[in-house]
């Protein structure tokens, strides 16, 4: 019979100690929307389960000092409904509202979504376009890892075994900043993205950030395309042409595969189309 | 570990395994309204409220609920005081099988607690995690709108308010389901809710190979596991061939299957079966069975199945019913009316196009589940989720070599069927386990097994050749079909037979040729699925009708209406193409197609839309610069029961208070047939519907019925109910005549009384008392059975309004309108529900559903994440219109309604995509990827205008 040790820490300190003590086969469980299913199926069999649900002060959304901070236990439903997130970081609100169904959104947490490291994770494409930082804690101390360097591949992150995510934060976008999020799946609810895009545009600095989900082993940023945009937006005499060129270049960031949801070829077509749509909507104000 | 939580306000302490999910804990504690549908958090059937928030309880470890408050459906009111949500859902007829409804009601509770006045989008979002396969969510959304203080915004302008009081008192009324509150409060019993002492859990070990011979099989390690009671292999069970197709005897499907075989023919085929004390143990035992396979070359392409040198899938000599084992040909059909060659010569234009209809699954929310046990007399009792209890009894007895008298089959509430439960999937093997162990055994399929190992809609490739004169008349039509029946041939003859017989008569054609080859492949097995061959046929025929109209410059509607079969005409195909044999004369006595179209046209503004199209432009721009909008239409006719084949029977007996037991073999899968048949009995007997106590689908206690398939129940079983009720009524008139002192011949009954022309009357209860306790002392009870040869076709017209995103290829359906001539609606609410659900299943087939296989024949999307059934946020507005034509052969004028809605969907969607973009798609489903590739090639690889 499978009988793992169940730890139910009441504070962050206790949680960090519990996962530190658990060793190699310890797993953290928050919402459990993925892990509980795997445990029941017998696919995942950790010896120690550390339940984070009792850890206080670890949830919710706070806005302070020009940053938005998401507690690791903030649910997708909470983030999607938060007024400041909706106003200033609309892409994140939309991404969180695109997760699974009402049931999974009220249960699943942003920390879990990030820790799971799925290239298709809905919130991550948005957080990548917001240049998010992941806040990590262990008995050895805390550290901040930029989201861009957090993932190593599908299901793999730079987190050490004894580390847990305490939250994700990013700069509060300006009041005139614009953003875009779109997920293409075969169904509106309960769908895993064929391709998703999170994008931001700061008219003050003339910069964009473009992040794609489900087109590479991890969520990716189209850095070369962003650079092209930054260098030419301010001086460009033909912005629609620039947008087209940036979108084409953005597609080069993608290295998709064929899977049950779509072919690589289709994903490549979508990346360029979505990049172009996002830029037109955010930067040219067309097709809104 | 010990967990403490509150369930429905009550403190509960229980010991759980840390790996146990809340779903299993709650069911173990007796909260069986929590249903198991997928166990991956996708279907929402197991939704409970955790601290007021809806969660799928299969994704929560019981340990995580420690210290929290859980609300299940049982906590939401009962039959004495239902929650307003339950009451409102019931009044609107929101439920059909209701397996998903307990969860949906809890999601609704959470939604309304947080937001008492949700918008439509918020309502759809709120229930988007509760997949329903029966209803298309239409009536649930209407009910929630009412709870939110709003009315129905899109009423059917022609809908009867109440029943036709001029004609009937109960028939024709929107009577609520007899078992409705039980269904919506979690107390109705489905198979998995039955309790047994010493229950064992069965599991089938399934083949990992598409085609292999079992060389050696060693179960010793599995049997050594404590708690494992039994392992069966092909050496342990009778080798009696049978078909899993639950059809009338002699079944028109080949006998190509045994309980366990020494050969496996598709990935998922049975290898062995286990019975153990827990589900987990049964799974471990399966893993421990050591099997040595000789892997054989597999046929994974239906085009290659009949080719020279293709591996033979069925090798036994002289099996009953296989057309030609040497060519993997399960069934063959060939029919000629007139001379098509001559017809094509006479035609001014000849069109020839090819269509493909994919592998799709019924995917009921309740997977197949069967529990077998021995009663106190040692007889086998099978409680099972089936559409065909009497066929189950016969086939299980045959396969296990026991007498029919030793088998009793009970169908309790079941969670949807749609055809896949017309199939003996578990009953034979579960029985074998019980016969061996002498203990109760239950097998419930996992969601992935349900999808890859049960039955599918037969994929078909259809070539249609049509000769048309310049005046728009059709001279000749040839339909040549290649059907993939997969590893076994259940329905391999009759499904393609219906592909021809249901579709070819719709448009009058002088010369007709129909050919079908049904081939075996090493892929999942075809079976019955709502529409039964006609869905594939109409996709081809009604798509091509549009193509012809476009090419020849005809209006697509005029071209169809000009050729549609008329009232009074004979269907030329029916005599030749029956149920796997010659058929019967079929006269079209009622045809409401023109009225169907008039109403659809009015609701969807067809004429205004047509007029708004700019000359030379295809479609219209949509709501966004990168979308194109189009409308498409289609027509269909179907059947009502299998002529000369389907038989239903009913017994009615009177009770002393003027109530009646109605015992019927007919099988309610959630359609509401128990209620409808009760309405018919009530009407004839002149009593209110609550006086009819319906009990159905128990082979020991109810008379025979073929079961729920071929759109037969209302018509065929209903006919039996009417006959039995008339006999009971007449006998009660005899007893009443004594009390009234009047002649029996002039008596009438209504309002629970029997009355004489003189005005004297007596209550039904007094008459029943007189019959039972008067001088003659008689139990008034009659049984009648009914068969039919008429098979009157319902007709349907549909229009879909959609947008195509030319950047991504996604098709967004905005509205689907469908009118069905169903003869007469015995219960308009249920009839509309059938149309809604059929349309949504059709949309799944048209746009999102497809079983996908890898190069080894393994299904790669056997889950509800990637096998995409529509949720409430995907379902468009669906509007159902009932057209009544009073079919003279039907009970109260009724024809069928349940299958025809699926027929109209794929062609309407294909025609609308063409109208929007000029892209003609002939391969289902129209996934974003296929649409985008099509648009791209249409534009010569330059990107479709507006896509960028």
Properties at a glance:
heterodimer; A: 288 residues; alpha+beta; Uridine Diphospho-n-acetylenolpyruvylglucosamine Reductase, domain 2; Uridine Diphospho-n-acetylenolpyruvylglucosamine Reductase, domain 3; Enolase-like, domain 1; 3 domains; four-stranded antiparallel sheet; 11 helices; 36% helix; B: 948 residues; Ubiquitin-like (UB roll); DNA polymerase, domain 1; Aldehyde Oxidoreductase, domain 3; seven-stranded mixed sheet; five-stranded mixed sheet; 34 strands; 27% helix
List strands and helices in order, with pairings.
The complex is a heterodimer of chains A (288) and B (948).
Chain A: E1 5-7, H1 12-22, E2 26-29, H2 35-41, E3 48-51, E4 61-64, E5 67-71, H3 76-81, H4 83-88, H5 90-97, H6 102-107, H7 110-116, H8 122-129, E6 133-138, E7 141-146, E8 151-153, E9 156-157, E10 164-171, E11 178-184, E12 195-202, E13 207-213, E14 220-221, H9 223-232, H10 239-251, H11 264-284
Parallel strand pairs in A: 1-3, 2-3
Antiparallel strand pairs in A: 4-5, 5-10, 6-7, 6-10, 8-9, 11-12, 12-13, 13-14
Chain B: E1 2-7, E2 10-15, H1 22-28, E3 47-50, E4 53-56, E5 69-71, H2 84-92, H3 101-114, H4 120-126, H5 138-147, H6 180-184, E6 200-206, E7 212-218, H7 220-224, E8 228-232, E9 263-264, E10 270-276, H8 279-288, E11 290-295, E12 329-337, H9 340-346, E13 349-357, E14 369-374, E15 380-384, H10 389-400, E16 407-410, H11 427-437, E17 441-444, H12 447-453, E18 455-456, E19 460-468, E20 474-486, H13 494-501, E21 509-520, E22 525-526, H14 534-552, H15 556-563, H16 593-603, H17 606-612, E23 620-621, E24 627-637, E25 647-654, E26 660-664, H18 673-685, E27 692-696, H19 713-740, E28 748-750, E29 753-755, E30 761-763, H20 764-773, E31 781-787, E32 795-805, E33 811-823, H21 828-848, E34 877-884, H22 900-917, H23 928-938
Parallel strand pairs in B: 1-5, 6-17, 15-16, 18-22, 20-21, 26-27, 33-34
Antiparallel strand pairs in B: 1-2, 3-4, 3-5, 6-10, 7-9, 7-11, 8-10, 12-21, 13-19, 14-15, 14-17, 19-20, 23-24, 24-32, 25-26, 25-31, 28-29, 29-30, 32-33
């Amino acid at each position: 019979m499978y009988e793992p040790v169940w730890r139910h820490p009441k504070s962050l300190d206790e949680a960090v100690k519990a996962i530190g003590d658990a060793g190699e086969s310890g797993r953290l469980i928050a919402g459990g929307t993925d892990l509980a299913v795997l445990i029941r199926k017998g696919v995942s069999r950790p010896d120690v389960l550390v339940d984070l649900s009792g850890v206080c002060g670890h949830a919710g959304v706070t806005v302070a000092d020009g940053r938005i901070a998401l507690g690791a236990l903030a649910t997708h439903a909470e983030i999607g409904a938060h007024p400041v997130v909706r106003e200033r970081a609309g892409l994140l609100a939309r991404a969180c509202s695109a997760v699974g169904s009402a049931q999974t959104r009220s249960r699943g947490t942003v920390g879990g979504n990030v820790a799971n490291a799925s290239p298709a994770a809905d919130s991550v494409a948005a957080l990548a376009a917001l240049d998010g930082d992941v806040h990590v804690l262990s008995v050895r101390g805390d550290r901040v890892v930029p989201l861009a360097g957090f993932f190593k591949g599908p299901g793999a992150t730079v987190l050490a075994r004894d580390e847990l995510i305490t939250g994700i934060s990013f700069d509060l976008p300006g009041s005139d900043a614009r953003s875009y999020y779109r997920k293409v799946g075969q169904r509106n609810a309960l769908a895993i993205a064929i391709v998703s895009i999170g994008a931001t545009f700061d008219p003050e600095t003339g910069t964009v950030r473009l992040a794609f989900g489900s087109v590479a082993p991890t969520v990716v940023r189209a850095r070369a395309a962003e650079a092209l945009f930054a260098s030419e937006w301010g001086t460009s005499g033909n912005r629609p042409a620039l947008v087209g060129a940036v979108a084409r270049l953005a597609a080069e960031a993608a290295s998709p595969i064929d899977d049950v949801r779509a072919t690589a070829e289709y994903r490549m077509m979508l990346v360029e189309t979505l990049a172009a749509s996002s830029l037109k909507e955010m930067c040219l104000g067309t097709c809104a | 570990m010990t967990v403490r939580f509150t369930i429905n306000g009550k403190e509960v302490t229980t010991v759980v395994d840390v790996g146990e999910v809340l779903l299993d804990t709650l069911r173990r504690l007796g909260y069986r309204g929590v249903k198991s549908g997928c166990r991956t958090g996708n279907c929402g059937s197991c939704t409970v409220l955790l601290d007021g928030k809806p969660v799928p309880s299969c994704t929560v470890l019981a340990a995580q609920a420690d210290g929290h408050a859980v609300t299940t459906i049982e906590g939401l009111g009962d039959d004495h005081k239902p929650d307003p949500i339950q009451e409102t859902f019931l009044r609107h007829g929101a439920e059909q099988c209701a397996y998903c409804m307990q969860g949906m009601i809890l999601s609704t509770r959470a939604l309304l607690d947080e937001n008492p006045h949700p918008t439509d989008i918020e309502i759809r979002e709120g229930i988007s995690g509760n997949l329903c396969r029966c209803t298309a969510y239409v009536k649930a959304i209407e009910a929630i709108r009412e709870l939110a203080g709003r009315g129905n915004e899109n009423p059917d302008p022609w809908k009867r308010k109440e029943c036709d009081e001029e004609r009937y008192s109960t028939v024709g009324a929107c009577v609520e389901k007899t078992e409705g509150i039980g269904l919506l409060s979690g107390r109705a019993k489905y198979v998995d809710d039955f309790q047994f002492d010493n229950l064992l859990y069965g599991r089938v070990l399934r083949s990992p190979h598409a085609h292999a011979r079992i060389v050696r099989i060693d179960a010793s390690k599995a049997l050594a596991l404590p708690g494992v009671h039994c392992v069966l292999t092909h050496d342990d069970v009778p080798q009696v061939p049978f078909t899993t197709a639950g059809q009338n005897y002699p079944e028109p499907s080949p006998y190509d299957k045994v309980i366990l075989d020494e050969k496996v023919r598709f990935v998922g085929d049975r290898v062995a079966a286990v019975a153990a004390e827990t589900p987990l143990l049964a799974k471990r035992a399966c893993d421990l069975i050591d099997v040595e396979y000789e892997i054989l070359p597999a046929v994974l392409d239906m085009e290659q199945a009949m080719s020279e040198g293709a591996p033979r899938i069925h090798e036994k000599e002289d099996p009953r019913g296989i057309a030609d084992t040497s060519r993997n040909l399960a069934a063959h059909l060939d029919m000629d009316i007139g001379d098509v060659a001559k017809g094509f010569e006479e035609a001014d234009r000849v069109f020839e196009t090819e269509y493909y209809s994919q592998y799709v699954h019924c995917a009921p929310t309740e997977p197949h589940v069967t529990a077998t046990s021995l009663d106190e007399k040692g007889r086998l009792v099978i409680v099972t989720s089936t559409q065909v209890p009497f066929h189950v009894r016969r086939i299980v007895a045959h396969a296990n070599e026991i007498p029919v008298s030793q088998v009793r089959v009970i169908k309790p509430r079941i969670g949807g069927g749609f055809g896949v439960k017309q199939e003996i999937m578990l009953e034979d093997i579960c029985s074998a386990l019980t016969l061996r162990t002498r203990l109760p055994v239950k097998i419930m399929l996992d969601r992935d097994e349900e999808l890859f190992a049960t039955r599918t809609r037969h994929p078909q490739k259809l070539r249609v050749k049509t000769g048309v004169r310049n005046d728009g008349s059709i001279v000749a039509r040839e339909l040549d079909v290649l059907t993939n029946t997969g590893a076994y041939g259940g329905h391999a003859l009759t499904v393609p037979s219906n592909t021809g017989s249901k579709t070819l008569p719709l448009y009058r054609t002088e010369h007709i040729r129909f050919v079908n080859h049904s081939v075996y492949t090493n892929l999942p097995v075809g079976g019955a699925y709502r529409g039964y061959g006609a869905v594939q046929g109409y996709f081809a025929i009604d798509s091509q009708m549009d193509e012809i109209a476009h090419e020849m410059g005809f209006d697509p509607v005029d071209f169809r209406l000009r050729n549609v079969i008329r009232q009074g005409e004979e269907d030329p195909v029916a005599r030749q193409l029956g149920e796997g044999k010659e058929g019967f004369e079929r006269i079209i006595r009622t045809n409401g197609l023109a009225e169907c179209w008039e109403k659809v046209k009015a609701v969807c503004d067809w004429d205004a839309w047509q007029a708004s199209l700019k000359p030379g432009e295809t479609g219209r721009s949509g709501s966004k610069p990168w979308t194109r909008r189009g409308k498409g239409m289609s027509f269909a006719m179907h059947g009502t029961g299998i002529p000369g084949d389907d038989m239903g029977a009913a017994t009615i007996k009177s009770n002393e208070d003027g109530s009646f037991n109605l015992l019927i073999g007919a099988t309610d899968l959630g359609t509401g047939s128990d209620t409808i048949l009760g309405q018919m009995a009530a009407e004839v007997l002149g009593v209110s519907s609550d006086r009819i106590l319906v009990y159905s689908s128990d082979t020991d206690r109810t008379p025979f019925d073929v079961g729920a398939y071929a759109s037969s129940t209302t018509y065929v079983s209903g006919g039996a109910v009417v006959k039995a009720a008339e006999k009971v009524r007449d006998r009660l008139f005899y007893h009443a005549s004594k009390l009234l002192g009047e002649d029996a011949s002039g008596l009438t009954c209504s309002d629970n009384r029997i009355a004489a022309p003189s005005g004297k009357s007596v209550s039904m209860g007094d008459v029943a008392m007189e019959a039972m306790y008067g001088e003659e002392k008689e139990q008034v009870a009659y049984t009648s059975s009914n068969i039919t040869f008429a098979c009157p076709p319902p007709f349907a017209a549909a229009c879909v309004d959609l947008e195509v995103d030319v950047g991504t290829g996604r098709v967004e359906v905005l509205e689907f309108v469908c009118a069905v001539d169903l003869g007469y609606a015995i219960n308009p609410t249920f009839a509309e529900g059938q149309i809604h659900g059929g349309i949504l299943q059709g949309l799944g087939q048209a746009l999102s559903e497809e079983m996908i296989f890898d190069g080894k024949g393994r299904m790669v999307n056997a889950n509800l994440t990637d096998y995409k059934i529509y949720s409430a946020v995907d379902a468009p507005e669906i509007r159902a219109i009932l057209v009544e034509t009073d079919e003279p052969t039907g009970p109260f004028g009724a024809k069928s309604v349940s299958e025809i809605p699926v027929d109209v969907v794929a062609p309407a969607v294909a025609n609308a995509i063409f109208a929007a973009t000029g892209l003609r798609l002939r391969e289902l489903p129209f996934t974003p990827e296929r649409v985008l590739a099509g648009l791209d090639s249409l534009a010569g690889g330059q990107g479709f205008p507006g896509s960028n």
